[in-house]
User: Fold Schlafen group 3-like DNA/RNA helicase domain-containing protein from Gluconobacter thailandicus NBRC 3257.
Amino acid sequence: MGAWWSGPVATFLNTDPDRIGERLAHEAGRRRFSSEPQQLRAWATQLDILRTTLTALPQTAGWQILFEFPIPRLGGRIDTVLISPDATFVLEFKVGASHFDAAALAQTEGYALDLQDFHAGSRHHPIIPILIATEAAQPAQTSPLLLGSGVTPVLKCNATHLTALLSDLAHQTQYSIAPMHPYEWEQAPYNPVPSIVEAARLIYSTHSVADIHTARADATNLTLTSDRITELLENARRQRRKTIIFVSGIPGAGKTLCGLKAAFGTAEQDNSATFLTGNPTLVHVLREALTRDAVAQGQKRAAVEQRMESTIQSLPKFRDYYVGRTAECPPERIMVIDEAQRSWNADQAIRKSAQRPVRLTQSEPAHLLDIMHRHDGFAAIICLIGQGQEIHDGEGGMACWGDALASRAEWQIHASPDVVSSTPGLTTLPPSLPVQKDPCLHLTVPMRSLRDIATPTWVNAVLNGNASLARSIAENTSLPFRLTRSLPELRNALRERSRLTYRCGLIASSQAKRLRAEGLGAELAHMDSNAVAQWFLNRWVPDKDVRASDALETVATQFAIQGLELDFVGLCWDGDFIRTGYPQRWQSRRFSGTTWQTVKSVEKALWSLNTYRVLLTRARYETIIWVPEGNPDDPTRCPDTLNGIADFLLACGVEPLAHSETLHVVENCLLDV
Assistant:
C-alpha cells in the first residue's frame, strides 16, 4: 500500500507537473478507477496550487509530499499528505467549490482520524486536516491548539490563503521534542481495524481477511483461524463428508469476520454458502450496507437485494422453509451460523412454533443438521460460538448442539478445546462426543476494542463480582470505561467524542424498564429492518437524521446491538441488574406491574448476566456508563440501590467522567504498533 506519487518537496518542485499528472492517471487506470477529464483537470489545478504554495514556503527543506494516499477502511484516498518533521498535514481539495460543505468536512476529518488510529507514523505528532475549497471566501477561524499529538479540528482554506495558513502552522509546530523523519512516514505500518460493517464490505469485495488487522502484532489469530476453516472445508469436500466446525472466541475477537469470509469467499465461486443468523439486526444492517455500496457503484438495487437475500439469511426463515419442505435440499452446501449457542432447545422450539404454520418437533440444531444432511456427499456447518453470550430464555447453548450430534454419527466434529468439557454443561460440548480438538478454532485476541486487550478479562471480573481482580486489571491498563450519574453529561461526552466521523449511541438492557422515568422510553425496534439500518448506518452529523444512533434519542437493547458495535457507547444501567445481599452479589430483576421482581431461576439469571456482558463489550474505543441517581420518592428507582451499582463499578477501577474533561480521548485510547 502506498501513495500514487510521493517524494521530497524539493523533488516535487523540480518535476514537470505534467509528468506527475500522467503518473496519477496511470495509477488510476491500473486500479480501474475513473480518470475522466474532470478528474485530470482537478489534479492539474491541485498541482499548480501546491507548486505555488510550496515555492513560497521557506520551511519545507526535508518535507515529504504524497498524492492519492489510500485509506482502505474508508474506501477513499487522501488528495495530498504533507509531512514535516513536526506535523502531518492532510489536504483535501475541492477544486471549483465555493463553500465548505458538511460532507467534505466529515471526509477530511475521517481521513485524519484514520491515520491517527491506524498509522504508526502518525501517533506522536499533530495531524492537521485542511479542507481547501478553491473558490470559497476565506472564513475567520481560530488557530488550532497544538498539544503534541492528535487530530486538530478541520481547518478551512481557499486556494489564495493556503500559503499563509501552511506557513503559520509550520511555524507553530516547529521544533518538536522528537522530530519525525518525513521520508520514513510512508513506510510506517498501517493496520486498519474496521468495524463489522466496514469489514463485511471489505471481505465481500476481496474475499479475504488479510487486510484486517489490529494495532497489536499478536493478532495473527484471525488469519490462522480463517485459513484453518478453509482447509477443513476442502478436506471434507474432497472426502465427500459431512462436517461441523465450531469456532469460538472472546467477545469482539472476529468470529463473525471468519464466518463472513467463509460465506462470501465461496458464495461468489459456486453459490454454495449462506450466512445464517437469528439476529435480525445483523441481517438488516449487513444487507443494507452492502446494498448501498453496490448501488453507489451503479448496480441495480433490486438485483443486489436479491443477491444479498441468498448470501445473508434469517436463520428462522431458512429453518422454517426447509422444515416445511422435507423433500427439498438447500442449494447451499455450506451453512455459517452466527451466535450458534443461541439456538433454541427442543422445549423452546416446540412451544414457540405451536401456533405457527410450520411446527418444529425437535431442537433448532437437530433440525439444521437434518436439513444439511439431505445433501448427497459433502455438506458443512460452521457454528460461530460467542461464549457467555446466551441472552434469552430457551437458548440451548453448546449442550443443545451436543445432544443433537450425539445421535447423528455421520457428522465429523471439529472444535477448539475451549468448548469441550469433562463435565456436562450448558456452555460446552459433552465429553462423550468424538470431537477433533483444534486450538486454531479459538480466537483469543480482541479485534473490537482498540483501546485495550484487557477489556474482556476486566468485564468477566466485574460480572463475577471480583472487585479486587477488576481493580488490579484496571490499575495495569488504560481501562476504556467511565462513569457518570448525569444523562446530560453522558450525551455531551458522547457528542464531543464522536466528532464528525466516529459513531456513538445509547444502549441498555431490554429489561431496563424504569429508564422511562428518566426520559429514555424510545427503544429501537430491532425487528424493524428499516429502523435498524437507519440507526446503524445513517448519520446525525452532517445529515441531522434523528433516526441515527448518534442522535442519541433511541436506545438499542442487547437484541439490536449483539454482533455489532459502535465507536463510543453510552451504557444506561437500570435496576434490573443490581448489587445486593451480604456478601454482596449480582441480582437480576424484572419489572412487573409496579414493582421489581427478583429473578429466581438460575438459567434466567444467567441470561441477565450475559446481557450485561454483551452491553459492556460493544465499544471500539470507550464505554461511558450512566447509572441514574434515582428518586427517594419512587421505590422503583431507589437511590441506595443505584448507588450500590455505581460504587461497585468505581471499586472495580472505573474512573468518574470529569465534568470538564479535556477531549484528547482517542489519542489516549490507542496502542503503538
